[in-house]
Structures are given as C-alpha cells and as structure tokens.
C-alpha cells in the first residue's frame, strides 16, 4: 500500500513540476509585448495539468483511506511519519507546490497590473471631446449644424 502511495507522490511531484514550468512560460508570455498569441496553449496545458493533479490527489486520498488514514495533509503527515521514503517524497512535493504557488501568485499580479494598465488606457481613449463644427464624429460623418 505504501509503495502505491509513494508512486502516486512521485507522479504528483512530476505533475507539479510540469505545472511550475508552464507557469514560468506564462510569466514570459505575460511580460511579452503581445502575449495574446502565446497564452492560449499555455492556458490549455495548465487546465490539463490541473485535471491531472486533481486526479492524483483523489488517488492519494483513496490510498490514505485504504490505509486507515485521513485524507489530505493530516493523512500525509501521518503516513510520512512512519516511512522515510514517503516523508522524503512528501517533502519534495510540498516544496514544488510552494514554488508553483509563488509563480501563480506572481502571474496573478502581472495580470492585475496589465488589466489596470488596459483600463487606464481605455479611460484615456474615452475622454469626451467637445463637438466642433466641421469635425467628423465617431461615425465618420460631420454632424448637422444646429439652427441658429
């Protein structure tokens, strides 16, 4: 049973490392001048990896339950306390997850800054300009002059 748990932890670690790598690519894309063409495949891969990670977590929780341990962190801490191989792999997984969390937080901040910049740019472009006689309007036509 512990061998299956260890194998799942190894798979989980690999998936988290892959997720962290994708987040690094996302950081590069978010700091690029024009990220729009770079982001769709990154988002697709992130979504795929999130599914893989959720599945591996469910498997891990099932294995813990089969061992008579609680799910999640408490169960893993108990399992790690009785097997050094599990403890070592659990520690690696936690470190990788923390690294991925930091990348994700940083990317969220980059997105927030970019969105803020875009909002300010839109606001600047939407400044109301007084109508002047002879100038065309947003529809490309010169407005009718009011009767005097």
From TrEMBL:
- Which processes are annotated in GO (biological process)? bacterial-type flagellum assembly
Alphabetically list the UniProt keywords.
Bacterial flagellum biogenesis, Cell projection, Cilium, Flagellum
Q: Which domain of life is it from?
A: Bacteria
Q: What does this protein do?
A: Required for the efficient initiation of filament assembly.
Q: Which family does it belong to?
A: Belongs to the FlgN family.
Kindly provide the name given to this protein in its UniProt entry.
Flagella synthesis protein FlgN
- The species is Paraburkholderia bryophila
């Amino acid at each position: 049973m512990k061998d299956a748990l260890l194998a799942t932890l190894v798979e989980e670690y690999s998936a988290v490392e892959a997720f962290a790598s994708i987040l690094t690519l996302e950081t590069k894309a978010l700091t690029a001048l024009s990220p729009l063409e770079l982001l769709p495949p990154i988002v697709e891969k992130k979504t795929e990896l999130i599914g893989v990670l959720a599945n591996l977590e469910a498997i891990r929780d099932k294995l813990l339950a089969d061992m008579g341990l609680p799910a999640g962190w408490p169960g893993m801490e108990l399992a790690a306390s009785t097997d050094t191989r599990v403890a070592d792999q659990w520690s690696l997984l936690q470190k990788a997850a923390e690294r991925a969390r930091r990348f994700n937080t940083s990317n969220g901040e980059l997105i927030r800054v970019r969105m803020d910049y875009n909002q300010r740019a839109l606001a600047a472009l939407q400044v109301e300009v007084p109508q002047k006689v002879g100038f065309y309007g947003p529809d490309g036509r010169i407005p009718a002059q009011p009767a005097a």
